Amino acid sequence: MPTATRRRLPLSLILSYVLDWIIIVLIAVAGALFTLTTPNHHPFSPTDPSIAYPYVVKEKVSTSTLVLVALVAPGIITALVCLIFAPGRVASREMPTSLIWRRKLWEWNTAWMGLGLALATAFMITDGMKNLFGKPRPDLLARCDPDMANLQKYIVGGFGTATSGGLLVSWQICRQTNLSILNDGFASFPSGHSSFSWAGLTYLSLFLCSKFAIAIPYLVPSAYRSSMPRPISGDRLSDTPLNHPKNPPQPTSPIPLSQIMRSQAAAPPTYLLIIAFIPIGAAIYISSTRWSDFFHHGFDIIFGSLMGFLLAWGSFRWYHAPIRRGAGWAWGPRSLEKAWGIGMGVQGYASESEWKRGDEDLENGVRRTDGQIGADDGVEV
Q1: Residue 202: which pLDDT band, with cuts at 50, 70 and 90?
Q2: Closest CA to 279 of 71, 116, 125, 61
Q3: Is the Cβ–Cβ distance between 300 and 79 less than 8 Å?
Q4: Closest CA to 339 of 112, 84, 19, 96
Q5: N or C terminus: which one in the chain shows less Cβ crowding within 10 Å?
Q6: Inter-residue contact 323 to 209 (CB < 8 Å)
Q7: What residues contact 82, with CB distance under 8 A and at least 6 apart?
Q8: CA distances for 62 relative to 197, 201, 219, 220, 326, angstroms
Q9: DSSP codes joined into one string, 17-41
C-alpha cells in the first residue's frame, strides 16, 4: 500500500466545531436560567375539578432519574457503539489504525453533538414555554391551599358564586408559603419529563437503527435499474414505453420484475427491532407517570412528547445520513472553505478540499461495497 501523506485538521475547521459545542451548551444554559425565572400565574377556578388532584411528593420518575435515563444512558450507549462497532465492515485488515480511530472519534463526536442538540433544545423550549403560559397543574389546589374565607378579595373574572363555581381568582389567594412548590404548580404546559425523555430516547432509538441497519426493507433504484436484467414485457421497471427513442430494444429476461425486486432487500432480524424499541418504551413509561402522578394534563404530555420526538428527529438528521440510505454513517465534516458558513449561490457545506485529499491513498486499505461509504464520500476527518 502506498505511503500516506498525513495532514492535520485545520485549526479553523476545529474551531468551527468548538463553536457548535459552545452554542449547544449555551442553549442548555438558557434552559437552566428559565427554571430560575418566576412563571406567569394563570387565573384559575377554586372549584375546578381538573386541578383538584392530590399533590404527590414522591414522584415515580424523579428529575435525577430522568437525566440518567434520557441523557447519561444514551450518551454512554452511543459512545460505546461508535468506539466498538465503527467503522464496521467497510474497514479491511490493511486499513491503518490511525484512520480507523479517526472515524471512530468522528462518529462519537457527531453522536454526542446530535444528542446534545436534541436535549438542550428540548430543555430550553420546554422551560421557556412553561414560564410563558403559566398553566396550572392538575394538583394546583392541593399546592395552593386557597384562602376560601376571603375569596371575594381575589376574584379577577368569571361568573357565578363561590359554591356554584365559575369564578376565576388570582394566585395571591394561595396560602402556600413555599414559593418553589407554588410556582411549580403553574408549570404544567408542556410536560418537561415528556419532552426531555422523548428527545433523548428517540434520538437513541434512531441512532441504533442507523448503526445496526434497522429499517423497513426498501429498493435502491440504481441497484435494479442499472445492474439488473430487463424484465419481460408488461412488467417494466419504469413507465417509459419499450419503443420510446430513449429506450432502445434490449434483450429481455425471462425473470419477472417481482422476482428481481424481492431479491434486492430483506427484513432485518426481529431482535434488532426489539432493541430499537426499548428506548421508545422507556419514553412512553416516563410520560405515563406524569399522568398517574397528577403532574400534567393529557395535552401537556402529548405536546411535550411530540415536541421531543420532532427535536430528536431533526437533531439526528442534522448530523447523520438517512437511516435507510446512509449505511450507518454520520455526515462528514464541513469543508475548510465553508467551515464558518456559505453565501448565496453555493450548495452544501461539503466539498473536496486539500485536507481531505491528504489521506486519499489510505482508501487503498478500505473495502468498498454497495451501500457503504469510503473516506472520499464524506466520513473522513
Answers
A1: very high
A2: 71
A3: no
A4: 19
A5: N
A6: yes
A7: 104, 105, 107, 108, 111
A8: 12, 16, 45, 45, 37
A9: HHHHHHHHHHHHHHHHHHHTSPPP-
Dihedral sign, CA of 344, 349, 350, 354?
Answer: positive
**CB-count burial class (<10 Å; 0-12, 13-18, 19+) for 254:** exposed
pLDDT band at 224 (very low <50, low <70, confident <90, very high): very low
The C-alpha cell of 93 is what? 485488515
CB 222 within 8 A of CB 244: no
For 328-359, what is each residue's pLDDT tens digit?
Answer: 899 888 888 888 888 787 778 876 554 454 44
Which grid coordinates are listed for 105?
472519534
Cα separation, 214 vs 271, whole angstroms? 10
- Given a cut of 90, whether residue 205 has pLDDT beyond it is yes
Rounded to 5 degrees, what angle do the CA atoms 108, 110, 114 make?
A: 120
The one-letter code for the residue type at 154 is: Y
Residue 228: strand, helix, or coil? coil
How many other CB atoms are there within 10 angstroms of residue 198's CB atom?
32
Structure-block grid coordinates of residue 95: 486499513
DSSP state of 71: I
Tell me 144's DSSP state. H
Measured CA to CA, the distance from residue 198 to residue 195 in angstroms comes to 5
Grid coordinates of 173: 389567594
Task: Look at residues 60, 272, 33 and name the one whose alpha carbon lies nearest to residue 131.
Answer: 33
Which position has the grid cell 485538521?
9
| Ramachandran area for residue 115 (φ above 0: left; ψ -120 to 50: alpha; else beta) | alpha
Rounded CA separation 209/228 (Å): 28
What is the grid cell recorded at 7? Answer: 495532514
